DNA sequence: GGCATTTAATTGTCTGACAATTATTTTGGC
DNA sequence: GCCAAAATAATTGTCAGACAATTAAATGCC
C-alpha cells in the first residue's frame, strides 16, 4: 500500500528486508546469511549499520550468530519454548504498563483457560493427570513459600492445558496464562485459601479422570470466582489500611 | 542461580542490564536513558557496542530513539497494538517453522475463540454488532479477492472477541487468531463455501444480538467443522493431483 | 511579543583498524 | 601413511574517531 517509508533508519530497513525474507520463506531455517561484509556491499552501507540490523533480528530470535571461520548469521529454528518465553516477556510488560485491574486480568485468564476443557477431558492422559497430582502434593506442603506455591500453580495449569493434546493451543494458552501470573501474585495466599484452591485442583483432576467436562468447567468457574474474591479482599484490606 | 554467563557478547549483556532495569521498574515509561556517549562511559565500552545493545531493545519495542538535542532513548509505552503485532510475528513464524497440520491449527483457533462467547453475549454493544455486519457485507461483495475475504474474516473475528469487553482477553485472542490466519489461508474459498461461512457469521451476530450463548457456540462449532472439512478437501485435491 | 538565526546536544552513519574465535589446511615428526 | 601441532583464512566482536542529520533551546533582531 504505502510506499512512503517514513524515514526509518537504514539499519531498521535492512532488518525489515531480512525479516521479510525469512517470514516469506526465501531464507529457510538453518540457512546462513551472507557475511556482514557481503551484506554491507549488497546494501551499500557500512558494516556497523549491517551489524545493528542483525542485532535487531537476533533480539527477536530470528537469527543467531556464530563466530569464527564459516561462522556467520544463521536463520534460527524457533522452538515452542523460545516463542513462549518471548510472548511472556512482551505480554508481562504490556500488562505491567497498562494498569490492568485484577478483575479484568483474572476474567481473561480463566476465560482463556476454559477454552481447553472440552479437549482436555477427551484426551487427558494418565501421565498428565499424575503431573497434576504431583503439583497438588507440592502445593499441600506445609511452610511452602508463596513463590513456590505460585510456581506449582503455574505447573498445574500448564499440565491442564497440555491435556488438550494440541501443541498450538498449549503454546498460546501457556504463554497467556503465564504472562498474567505477576498480576495473580498480588494475592498472598493464606493457609485457608490454599486449602480451598487445592480442593478445586483436586476437583479438576477428578473431573478430567472421568472425562466430565461440565465438572471441570464448574471447578474452574469456582476457582475464578474465588480468586476474584481473594483479590477484592486484598484490595479492601489495602484501602482501609 | 547460575552466575557463569556463558560468554555473551558485551552488547547483549548491556541490553540485558537495561532490559532488567525496565522490567523491574527502575526505569519507568517515558524515562530517558543516558545518551549513548554516557552509556559508553558507564559501561566502559565503545559507542558502537552501546548502539547494538539499544537496537536490540528497540527491536523488542522496549525503547524508542529520537534524534536531535534532548533526543535520546526513551522507555516505550507498550501499546496493545504494538504488543499484538509482535506476538503475531513470533507466533506466525513459530507455526510456519513447525509443520503444523491444518486440523491442529484449526482446532486451536476455534477453541481459543470460543473462550470469549459467554462474555461476548453478555456485553456485546450495538456498535460492535454493526462492525460485524459491515464485515459480513464486505464478505458478500461479488468478485471479492481471496485476500480481501480473509482480511474481512479477521476483522469479523476481531470484532467478535472485542464484544467480550475485556481488553486483556481481546489482546490475547486477537493475537492468537491472527497468527493462525496464514494457516487458515491454505483454503481457497469458492463462492459456495463463502456463502456458507457468511451464513454462519450471520448466525453468530444474531445469537449475540439476543444474547444467546448456546447459539453462538453452535455457530462457531459448525464453522470449525466446516472449515476443517474444507481443509481436508483441499488436501485431498492436492494428493490426487 | 514574535519571528528568524544560531547553537548545542544527540542520534545515524561511515571508515579503518585490531582482537577473538574457529574450521580448514598445512606442516612436521614418526 | 598417520597423527598432532602449527599456521591460515574467514568471520564476528569491539574500538576509536570522524562527520552528517536532526531538533530543542537560546539568542538576536524587529
Specify the CATH class of the largest domain in chain A.
Mainly Alpha
Could you give the order of strands across the largest sheet of chain A? 1-2
In CATH, the architecture of the largest domain in chain A is Up-down Bundle
Query: Judging from the principal axes of the Cα atoms, what is the shape of chain A?
Result: elongated
Helix content of chain A: over 70%
Quaternary organization? homodimer
- Largest chain interface and its two residue counts? A-B, 56 and 56 residues
What is the structural class of chain A?
mainly alpha
User: What gyration radius of chain A follows from the Cα positions, in whole Å?
Assistant: 23 Å
Total strand segments of chain A: 2
Beta-strand content estimate of chain A: under 5%
Average pLDDT for all residues of chain A: 89
Number of domains of chain A: 2
N-to-C span of chain A: 56 Å
Q: What is the helix/strand order of chain A? A: HHHEEHHHHHHHHH
| Low-pLDDT segments of chain A | 1-5
Superfamily (CATH H level) name of the largest domain in chain A: GntR ligand-binding domain-like
With helices defined by DSSP (H or I, 4 residues minimum), what is the helix count of chain A? 12
Largest sheet of chain A: 2 strands, antiparallel
**CATH topology description of the largest domain in chain A:** Four Helix Bundle (Hemerythrin (Met), subunit A)
